[in-house]
Design goal:
- By secondary structure, this protein is an alpha+beta fold.
- It folds into two domains: 208 residues, Metalloenzyme, LuxS/M16 peptidase-like (Cytochrome Bc1 Complex, Chain A, domain 1); 128 residues, Cytochrome Bc1 Complex, Chain A, domain 1.
- It contains 15 helices and twelve strands.
- The strands form two sheets. Strands 1-2-7-3-5-4 form a six-stranded mixed sheet, sandwiched between helices. Strands 6-8-12-9-11-10 form a six-stranded mixed sheet, sandwiched between helices.
- Strand 1 and strand 2 form a beta hairpin.
- Helix 1 crosses helix 4.
- The longest helix has 20 residues.
- It starts with 30 loop residues before the first strand and ends with a strand.
Length: 439
């Protein structure tokens, strides 16, 4: 994930240790339920904070972009964030909250989310805005012209940054190259050519309530919140059957793009989250990440090597190649680290225990009590960060209690065996994305 401390709603990226949340007061426990239209809701009341965070997540990120439309999801996210009906109360609210650093959003490979941080008395207004985003955002040519330069400015900042990288955008490139067969990815050019109709089509395919999750965290009364949610979201009609989609089969390839960075991505098809091997592979990502980021030879060749098992049936390694680096050497080192992980002594007991400690809070956060948090970060933001990770993983893996049970059942032998079976014994998909020669 690419979560960072930001202005406005700050979600802290706690990678190895996630600070736990406080338990709600007696009578106001966490609760999860679904509306008849399929929207999943999670309420986390805490009367000891003075704000409320409202998160809306929708399953549909970079991997939902059609062929020839790289970056569409990110541009759509910007328009949805600001696209309330002109002159409406929702438009006034989003303008006020966005200007005050209390409204933001993010696009990931498999989903996007929209966050609001408001006063308790503004919760009904925040819920109305999130419902409007889900079902009736207003996209205009003027808003599109305003936001296209802003989305590209984010990319340009990461191209130059010594701290961040373009790995998130590379996942859009991976989908275009490996899943859609695009040998030339004109991300910048395609962004400038996007139309309001493109945004509307993308959002109409992804913005179903049965593909969305609503999380409310902070100082609120659960009964009042449920009534407000029913009023704002309960009137959204139950959607029809989901259209059948073709299975996306990744292919090894080399592509160019009009971005200044180079990426090497290695992917493997993995079983669905209902398979115990999937949770074993998820646990393996932390020791793999630790090894990748501690390998001096590898870090001389690449920036920010990252492993994820949250992307639509794929286990993906993503590394930004340093200028002048030997690409074949980098590929060999990445594959060697994965090969070692699946060997008889590949994952240690301490590594597996640490991985389980890292993962379980976002699968069973209700089992936690108040704990430490980063100095100077308000508790509401630590809570929101944890609930955000819960939401992101639920969109990726489905029923989290069942997934948590499978995680707890993973042993050293099953973790090593899963890596060996699905990563070491299967052909990896190698995707190379390099800058166009004109750059």
């Amino acid at each position: 994930m690419w979560l960072a401390i930001r202005a406005g709603v700050v979600f802290t990226a706690l990678v190895a240790v996630i600070a736990p949340t406080a338990e709600a007061r007696p009578g106001e426990r966490r609760v999860s339920y679904s509306l008849p239209n399929g929207l999943r809701v999670r309420l986390v009341p805490d009367r000891d904070v003075d704000e409320v965070v409202v998160l809306l997540g929708v399953r549909g990120g970079f991997f939902a972009e059609p062929a020839g439309r790289p970056h569409l999801a990110h541009v759509a996210e910007h328009l949805i964030t600001l696209g309330a009906s002109n002159g409406s109360e929702e438009a006034k609210d989003v303008a006020r909250w966005f200007a005050g650093g209390r409204a933001n959003a993010e696009t990931l490979a498999h989903c996007m989310y929209f966050d609001l941080r408001v006063r308790p008395e503004d919760l009904p207004r925040a819920l109305r805005l999130q419902a409007a985003r889900l079902t009736r955002p207003e996209f205009t040519p003027e808003l599109l012209r305003q936001e296209v330069p802003r989305t590209l400015a984010e990319l340009e900042h990461l191209e130059r940054s010594a701290l961040g990288g373009t790995g998130k955008f590379a996942l859009s490139g991976f989908a275009q190259a490996s899943l859609h067969g695009q040998s030339q990815i004109l991300l910048r050019e395609a962004t400038h050519k996007l139309t309001v109709a493109d945004i509307q089509d993308y959002w109409s395919r992804t913005s179903r309530p049965d593909r969305a999750i609503l999380n409310v965290i902070g100082n609120f009364d659960s009964k009042v919140a449920r009534e407000a949610i029913a009023k704002s979201f309960g009137t959204i009609p139950e959607p029809g059957a989901r259209p059948a989609g073709d299975e996306q089969v990744p292919r090894s390839c080399s592509s160019t793009w009009d971005v200044k960075t180079q990426h090497l991505l290695i992917a493997w098809k993995v079983p669905p989250p209902s398979d115990p091997d999937h949770s074993a592979l998820t646990l393996a990502t932390l020791p793999l990440m630790e090894r990748l980021q501690a390998d001096p030879g590898l870090l001389r060749l690449a920036r920010m090597p990252h492993a994820t098992n949250e992307v639509d049936g794929l286990f993906i390694l993503n590394a930004q190649v340093k200028p002048g680096a030997d690409l074949k050497a980098l590929e060999a080192q990445l594959l060697d680290q994965v090969q070692r992980l699946g060997q008889r002594e590949g994952i240690g007991a301490a590594e597996l225990a640490r991985a389980r400690t890292w993962l379980m809070p976002s699968l069973r956060p209700e089992s936690l009590v108040e704990g430490s948090r980063p100095l100077g970060v308000p508790r509401i933001l630590v809570q929101a960060n944890l609930e955000l990770q819960v939401m992101i993983r639920e969109m990726a893996w489905g029923d989290l209690p069942s997934y948590a049970a499978r995680v707890e059942a993973v042993s050293l032998d099953t973790a090593r065996a899963a890596v060996s079976k699905h990563l070491n014994r299967r052909q990896a998909v190698i995707v190379r994305i390099a800058p166009s020669r004109e750059l």
